[in-house]
Design goal:
Elements (H helix, E strand, L loop, with lengths): L3 E12 L2 E12 L3 E5 L6 H9 L6 E9 L2 E2 L5 H6 L2 E4 L11 H13 L3 H14 L1 H5 L10 H13 L5 E5 L7 H16 L3 E6 L2 H7 L2 E6 L2 E7 H5 L2 H8 L3
Parallel strand pairs: 3-8, 3-9, 6-7, 7-8
Antiparallel strand pairs: 1-2, 1-4, 4-5, 9-10
Helix pairs in contact: 3-4, 3-6
The structure holds adenosine-5'-triphosphate.
The site of adenosine-5'-triphosphate has 12 residues, from helix 1.
């Protein structure tokens, strides 16, 4: 078994009195892609926000979030980022009037502050992964295409040099070729030892790229196992993979 990058134990999240997650246990190893699939409203975004420490009005959380063995459950977002966690939110949250490069540099801020020589190499590695971003580095992020904006969001998360990268629906609204490109990068990152937690509606693409998967329904894990095994499970095929 690989070293645990992330271990979530008995995670409960409630919005007011309504509990959305009922005791989740999730593990991501080093160099492993773990996917969480499930229908709309199952609690996938709730789970990612709770792990990342995002403040959501009305939400209360209990349970343990261990990052490389250390409980970061009480840390604010910035401190979790500094410890090696990065989340690429579904909304992508770019600063639309700022350039691509300035958006990327913001991702480095928590880690490097203003030490330019330290982040130059990281920026170079992001441009190597996404040559398109180098070509467009001075363009306003808001004028990039949907796929390019997803690359900026992913690149910005990588600028913090995460050991755990969490992705919320990275393929949402993107053309098949761009989805392929994004998944190619995710697999390359895994090969560098980063642990990846991938939430996807596109269960087929997710299970293809992942090592291990969880099926989340109404706040509970109803099935888990090696991704290849889930992809062949009749119930998963029926509910999540369709006929095509
Ligand atoms: P989707 O795939 O549609 O994004 P999801 O699996 O990410 O769905 P969540 O967005 O985590 O699901 O929602 C889980 C449940 O919690 C849903 O019933 C949702 O209505 C509820 N919920 C989410 N955010 C809030 C909030 N801020 N306040 C109250 N209820 C919320």
């Amino acid at each position: 078994m690989t070293t645990s990058i992330l271990q979530v134990n008995d995670l409960h999240v409630a919005y007011g009195k309504v509990e959305a997650l009922h005791g989740l246990n999730i593990r991501v190893g080093a160099g492993q892609i773990v996917t969480v699939i499930g229908p709309n409203g199952a609690g996938k975004s709730t789970m990612l926000n709770a792990i990342a420490g995002a403040q959501v009005a009305n939400a209360s959380t209990r349970g343990a979030v261990l990052l490389r063995g250390a409980d970061v459950g009480s840390y604010p977002v910035e401190q979790r980022v500094a410890q090696g966690m990065s989340l690429v939110p579904e909304s992508r949250d770019l600063f639309t009037t700022m350039s691509v490069e300035d958006n990327l540099l913001l991702g480095a801020y928590t880690r490097y502050r203003r030490r330019e020589k330290d982040y130059a190499a990281t920026l170079e590695s992001v441009y190597e992964l996404f040559p398109r971003l180098r070509e467009r580095r001075m363009q306003a992020a808001g004028t990039m295409s949907g796929g390019e904006r997803q690359m900026v969001a992913l690149g910005r998360a990588l600028m913090a040099r995460p050991t755990l990268l969490m992705l919320d629906e990275p393929s949402l609204g993107l053309a098949p070729l761009i989805v392929k490109e994004i998944f190619r990068v995710i697999v390359r990152l895994k090969e560098t030892g980063v642990g990846i937690l991938l939430v996807e509606q596109n269960a087929r693409a997710a299970l293809q790229a992942a090592d291990y998967g969880y099926v989340l329904e109404t706040g509970e894990v109803v099935m888990e196992g090696p991704a290849a095994q889930l992809a062949n499970d009749p119930k998963v095929i029926d509910t999540y993979l369709g006929l095509n």
